[in-house]
Amino acid sequence: MLDKKIVDLLNSQINKEFYSSFLYLDMSNYYYDENLNGFGNWFSIQTQEEYAHAMLFLQYLQNNGHRPVLETIAKPNIEFKSFKQALEAAYEHELFISKSINDIYAVAYEIKDFRTMQFLDWFVKEQMEEEKNVDELNKRFDLFGGEARGLYMLDSELASRTFTSPSLVL
Ligand code: OFO
After folding, report:
1. What does the pLDDT read at residue 35?
2. In this predicted model, what pLDDT tens digit does every residue of 106-116 receive, in sequence order?
3. Ligand 1 near 54 CB (within 6 A)
4. Given CA atoms 84, 86, 90, 96 in this order, what sign does their dihedral have?
5. Are 73 and 17 in contact (CB under 8 A)?
6. Ramachandran area for residue 65 (φ above 0: left; ψ -120 to 50: alpha; else beta)
7. The Cα angle at residue 68 between residues 62 and 69, in degrees rounded to 5
8. C-alpha–C-alpha distance, residues 139 and 20, integer Å
9. Is 25 within 8 Å of 44 (Cβ atoms)?
């Protein structure tokens, strides 16, 4: 059994991961609608990753004898005014998720919940990867996305991204 504080935080993280999945699906829809199918694909893979993250938190609670509590997932509410804006919003969102995971880690540390700390280690590392990927995408957009040919090439490259299941095994 886990401490109630940790259970509540993990439940809230499930919701944040499902929201991330929803948010990136909205971004994917935006780019498909703008005929940037590579960007649409990149975000649809991101959607699948976030869904997988949510399921890992969910399974961790189940493995520890707790029934996950599913809450309402908020409506993604960003009006995209430029191709770059969604990329910036994605980066901001990843920083928010990193902080959320660090906050859970801090509580686990405080109450000596070594099991949860070990579980979260994978996510701490994963967030480094998530931030890096979106940051790189932003920087590459700045370099190439300003003119039609560069944008076309970048979009074509992003079309090849495929989904790989998370390496974490519970
Ligand atoms: Fe779940 O890693 Fe992004 O948000």
Report:
1. 98
2. 999 999 999 99
3. no
4. positive
5. no
6. left
7. 175
8. 21
9. yes
Rounded to whole angstroms, the Cα distance separating 121 from 117 reads 6
Query: Ligand 1, from 45, 127, 129: best to mutate by most atoms within 8 Å of Cβ?
Result: 127
Cα-to-centroid distance, 20 and ligand 1 (Å): 6
pLDDT exceeds cutoff 90 at 79: no
Give the position of tokens 């079309």.
159
The one-character DSSP state at 74 is P
Contact present, 41 and 27 (Cβ < 8 Å) = no
Q: Tell me which DSSP letter residue 161 carries.
A: -
Tokens 């991101």 locate to 46
The CATH fold of domain 4-158: Ferritin (1.20.1260)
| Pair of tokens at residue 24 | 């990136």
What residue's CA is closest to ligand 1, atom 1?
Answer: 50
Structure tokens at 10: 């993990």
CA distance 51 to 20: 8
Q: Is 20 in the pocket of ligand 1 (CB under 6 A)?
A: yes
Which atom belonging to ligand 1 lies closest to the Cα atom of 20? Answer: 4
**Domain residue extents for the chain:** 4-158
What is the chain's mean pLDDT, rounded?
97
Q: What does the radius of gyration of the chain's CA atoms come to, in whole angstroms?
A: 17
